[in-house]
Amino acid sequence: MPMAHKSIAALMVIISFLPGAAIYLTAQTGPPTVQGQTGMPANPGAGRASVPISSGALRNPGLTAIPPDFSALKLAPGYLVSVNVLDDSDFDGNFRVDQQGDLTLPIIGPIHVVDKTANEARQQIQQKLQTDEILKNPQVNLNILEYAALEVTIMGEVAAPGRYPLFAPRSLTDVLALAGGVTPAAGNEVLISPQGRDSEAMAVHYSRGTGSKSVEGTVVHPGDTVQIKRAGIVYVLGAVNRPGGYVMQEDGTLTVLEAISIANGTTMPASVGTIILLRRSPDGTAARIELPLSKMQRGKYADMALRATDILYVPTSKVKAALINSQGILSAATSAGIYAGVVY
What we know:
Elements: H1 3-16, E1 24-28, E2 48-52, H2 55-58, E3 80-85, E4 93-96, E5 102-105, E6 109-112, H3 118-131, E7 140-146, E8 150-156, E9 162-166, E10 170-171, H4 172-178, E11 186-193, E12 202-205, H5 213-216, E13 219-220, E14 225-230, E15 233-238, E16 244-247, H6 256-262, E17 275-280, E18 286-291, H7 293-297, E19 311-314, H8 318-323, H9 326-334, E20 338-339
Parallel strand pairs: 8-14, 15-19, 16-20
Antiparallel strand pairs: 1-2, 3-4, 3-7, 5-6, 8-9, 10-13, 11-12, 11-14, 15-16, 17-18, 17-19
């Protein structure tokens, strides 16, 4: 290795350990030059752009990668492009798309290019030169030098909530993977709120247990907000081996017998003749329902589906079942630990 190259390498190592040193992800820019009608790259790997990334991006290598279909990538404010007109250097230079979505070029003036592909922007410049009778047969090259990725906000029950760069629309599955996937407490509903588009928030049913076509077919756009709601929680308290709150996972359903089962069953002193179900009403009050657990277990009484925030209380005696008040059960529920129990 020549001495100059060794010095440069040593300097780069020193800089990388300096406090506060910026971290960059080098991403291929795809086609460096858009020329002619096809817009295909002359050398796909030629151009590279340095894009700052956050700690969230470091956990997810490649999240700022250029989409496979580069020709569909739309220009946005902040993009830096180079323009070259064959045989006329007066128009050559590097230009950044401003906040209004315009490229301001010498002699030509501003050209609105936001939401246009690189090839469409090249054609606009070429047409402007001809329409204004500046050049008769201009040959325009346009090269994207820097990308300004928009972000998608991912919040709720995911491993790493935050804002992540998103260059182009992606499937909901890919977007959830950017944030490390969903947590065990995730429910079966994902809410997608668009930004800058005339449409309302969209709710998508999500389940880890089955391959949902609706999830695979759902597209998230740059600027959108994706919220993964928490699953409903059912509390199982009293004389059970593992009292606490249990997440209603997968399809969001849970019955009385299933809830008792995932709480590891009842203890020896439990009185299973009658247990108590507290169910909140829309007005905030709690309705008290007595259920014959022993008959349910023997198949002589229909199992009952639970709702989110329901509280099951298993007493230790018939006397205690009669005397225990609803407020005492509600107070116990507020301090109960929450578990992600999977129901099969």
